[in-house]
Specification:
It is a single chain. This protein has eight helices and four strands. It is an alpha+beta fold and 184 residues long. It has a domain of 126 residues: 3-Layer(aba) Sandwich (Kinesin), CATH 3.40.850. The chain has a two-stranded antiparallel ribbon with strand order 1-2. The chain has a two-stranded antiparallel ribbon with strand order 3-4. Strand 1 and strand 2 form a beta hairpin.
Length: 184
């Protein structure tokens, strides 16, 4: 398969704008510079041509930009599939799981929002290749962090969010008026 090596520049670059999506749309892989949009276009074309499911695997270390790369691929699919304005699928998919993110992310020495979960995002298309829905499944990758916290690292975000919101009236509805945190 196609392999793309990308580096997180830790800043917004103008290489992910709408005009760049349109520049890669309809192109063959290798016709233009390597880009997440070139990989997405190839998967999209093969899905339409062969009528077979396609996968894009985004892998990397903490802070490598995996979530952002997945977001750009979804934006590409929503734009070329004509459904970007209709469904805003990118925002819906990425916002579909804030509780899982809070439970599964922690500040580490290398990344302020390091995900401890792997994510599998499945995007559904109709017969015209427009996005009709998506779902996200998560799985725990780093079980060691459940029972061990390295020096200078924070715990999962949910712990601090619960502490910060404990004085709010809505907190009573959660029936968490008493909870114990047991550091290991």
């Amino acid at each position: 398969g196609i392999v793309l090596v990308a580096i997180n520049p830790y800043e917004q670059l103008p290489i992910y704008e709408q005009d760049v999506i349109y520049a890669y749309s309809g192109q063959n892989i290798g016709d233009m510079d390597p880009h997440i949009f070139a990989v997405a276009e190839e998967a999209y074309k093969q899905m339409a041509r062969d009528e077979k499911n396609q996968s894009i695997i985004v892998s990397g270390e903490s802070g490598a930009g995996k979530t952002v790369s997945a977001k750009y691929a979804m934006r590409f699919f929503a734009t070329v599939g004509g459904s970007a304005s209709d469904t805003n699928i990118e925002a819906k998919v990425l916002a579909s799981s804030p509780i899982v993110e809070a439970i599964g992310n922690a500040k580490t020495t290398r990344n302020d929002n390091s995900s401890r979960f792997g994510k599998y995002i499945q995007i559904g298309f109709d017969k015209r290749y427009h996005i009709i829905g998506a779902n996200m499944r998560t799985y725990l990758l780093e079980k060691s962090r459940v029972v061990f916290q390295a020096e200078d690292e924070r715990n999962y975000h949910i712990f601090y969010q619960l502490c910060a919101s404990s004085s709010l009236p809505e907190f009573k509805d959660l029936r968490l008026s008493k909870f114990w945190y047991l550091p290991v």
